[in-house]
Amino acid sequence: MQSWLVGTVLGYVMRRLRAGDHRLVAALDADDVTLRFPGTSSFSGEFHGKAAHERWLARFAALGLQIYADQIVASGPPWRGTTCVRGTVYCRDEAGEVVYDNRYVIWSRARWGRITELEVYEDTRQSTAFDGWLREHRPELASPA
Amino acid sequence: MQSWLGHRLISYVMRRSRDGDLRPTLLLDHPDVQFTFPGDNSWSGIYRGRDEVAAWLRRMVDVGVKTYPDEVVVTGPPWRSTVCVRGHDHVDAPDGRRVYENRFVIWGRMSWGRLREYEVYEDTDKPEALDAWLRAERPALAG
Known about the structure:
The complex is a heterodimer. Chain A contains four helices and six strands. By secondary structure, chain A is an alpha+beta fold. Chain A has a single domain, classed as Nuclear Transport Factor 2, Chain: A. Chain A is globular. Chain A starts with a helix and ends in an 8-residue tail after the last helix. By secondary structure, chain B is of the alpha+beta class. A six-stranded mixed beta sheet of chain B has the order 2-1-6-5-4-3. Chain A binds chain B through residues 3, 38-40, 71, 73-76, 82, 84, 86, 103-105, 107, 119, 121-125, 128, and chain B through 2-3, 38-40, 71, 73-75, 82, 84, 86, 103-105, 107, 121-125, 128.
């Protein structure tokens, strides 16, 4: 039941994110949210606070990345809930060719409905290769704002 | 409660694996288990059946990869449960230098106490760097 409820909310906010609207995801963040993204790509690092996470999300949405959840697992009490999302993410160029394709897990913690911690686990070679494509084809979005 | 039990179980089997004993881990695997490791390194691929998974795990132990669970989430009925393990692992060289360090998620599907399928999600640059170290320092285990 808990996983179903969380899945319904996340399904909706991911749909909005795919449409280019990152605000709804950002609205779920606690003020002290932390995002950790692995690897050494332009997406990597540890981002503290709502504003830093929102900037990261805004770039994600501007790139047109399409993120889908295949499975969502939620457990724990409302004051210390854990949600694990496993899914796929991809990006197409203007001709419709897939230029980035990956599988991911997002492990997150929430407190009273607000996300306090997000950590992404994925094949970092793919995000590094995507950086190469961005530098060549979309240099304006090749580095974080 | 389910996650608490899962954490106890995973902690136990990983502790035994760190000590070189893979039997508890392999007892959890269904004979037709499928294991997927990401990336393009000597660890990557899809391994089908307990024997292939056992060979992969044996190499992991021989290389000295020490795996620790930080958090475990288990949900679903016994005939179709999902197990998510978030943890960290490392390899120390004989001189004590840390030559590999990573964080991972293992996402598994269990049925009646046996793992039918599991997949690792992690930074794939790091196992590539470990491969390079193995080729230089321990070629017999470089894969």
